[in-house]
Amino acid sequence: MPQRLHDRAVLEVHRRPQEAREEELRELWEALAESPRRIPSKHFYDRRGSQLFEAITRLPEYYLTDAERELLATAAGEIVTETRADELVELGAGSARKTRILLDAMDRAGCLALYVPFDVSESEVRRVALELVEEYPRLEVHGIVADFTRGLHVIPPGERRLVILLGSTIGNFRPGPARALLSGIAAPMASGDWFLLGVDLVKDSATLEAAYDDDAGVTADFNRNILANVNRLADADFDPDAFEHKAVYRPQHHWVEMRLVARRPQTVTLGALGRTLEIAAGEEIWTEISTKYERATVRSMLEESGFELVRWFENTGTFALALARRCGD
After folding, report:
1. Can you tell me the mean pLDDT for 72-76?
2. Of 111, 103, 164, nearest to 321 (Cα)?
3. pLDDT tens digits, one per residue of 98-122
4. C-alpha–C-alpha distance, residues 298 and 233, integer Å
5. Which of 18, 123, 132, 206 falls 20 to 30 Å from 10 in CA-CA distance?
């Protein structure tokens, strides 16, 4: 049952805390039991992790946020004219900072009616909903708290809709899961609905590795902070200082790998799971991949998932926005 936050804002919560924790614990153990070990990247984002990521976006080495924001500012008017959308659905909405560029363009065009922020963080969705109804007097907000990778059937029906996935979020998935995610996004959409996808582009190794391993060490702190989150979730005793940050670009895969490398042998207890891990010196735990794309690859992924690529906006070989339309079945 939606909770009313404001006369123009409601909130639906589809993740009960205990159910979400049990699901995350199962997923965490499966990832840690793999070879090499993994920690799902969604565990980066506690309050400190979010603050560290905001700091990363302001670093001179980290070009992605500014490149996407500049591109959105350039393309927003054309996107609104092309789609004529009056409903904006954002997957992984977070703070919705860049989203305001599109909301402003829709508002100027007189077609801003509904915003649907979809995110796993109830506090973020609640905060964004209350902020935006104050900033946009004609806007209604229908916030959804759920994991968009596990199904989008909970999005309310609508018309003239634009669904967006920004921040190169798609790059955090390997090719198979990325295509599965796009197919999952397409499935509940009506023929003619629009989809906007932000992708980081292939470029030289030095630029990419610097973006994920800055001189100030902020990304290293961000990476190690994932262990603090795992400690809280799983009643574990990882020592973040016992791991080094490592970021490597793999041109054969077109992705950057972020890892944590054990400085020494260690035994880690995960009390909530009743398990222990024996980690050898030099052993790596993978925390994130960030895939970089070429236009042909994006087109192929979209077409295989039920979309037609209509417009391609590119920022000098740095970042791109792919505007696609849902094909008829």
Report:
1. 97
2. 164
3. 999 999 999 999 999 999 999 888 8
4. 35
5. 18
Distance in angstroms between the alpha carbons of the first and the last residue of the chain: 32
User: What burial letters (b/e) apply to 125-160, b meaning 16+ CB within 10 Å?
Assistant: bbebbbebbeebeebbbbbbbbbbbeebeebeebee
CA distance 218 to 81: 39
- 297: Cα within 13 Å, side-chain hemisphere: 18
Q: What is the pLDDT of residue 148?
A: 85
- What domain range is 152 assigned to? 3-15+61-204+293-326
pTM, full prediction: 0.92
pLDDT in tens, 204-225: 999 999 999 999 999 999 999 9
In percent, how much of the chain has pLDDT > 70? Answer: 98
Burial class of residue 183, CB neighbours in 10 A (0-12, 13-18, 19+):
middle
Domains in the chain, number: 1
Q: Is residue 30 part of a domain?
A: no
Tell me the C-alpha distance between 61 and 207, whole Å: 8
CB atoms within 10 A of CB 278: 9
The answer to whether position 242 is within a domain reads no
Instruction: Supply the CATH number for residue 151's domain.
Output: 3.40.50.150
The answer to whether 287 and 41 have CB atoms below 8 angstroms apart is yes
Q: Per-residue DSSP letters for 237-301?
A: ---GGGEEEEEEEETTTTEEEEEEEESS-EEEEETTTTEEEEE-TT-EEEEEEEE-B-HHHHHHH
- Say how far residue 120 (Cα) sits from the centre of its chain: 11
Helix (H) or strand (E) holding 190: none
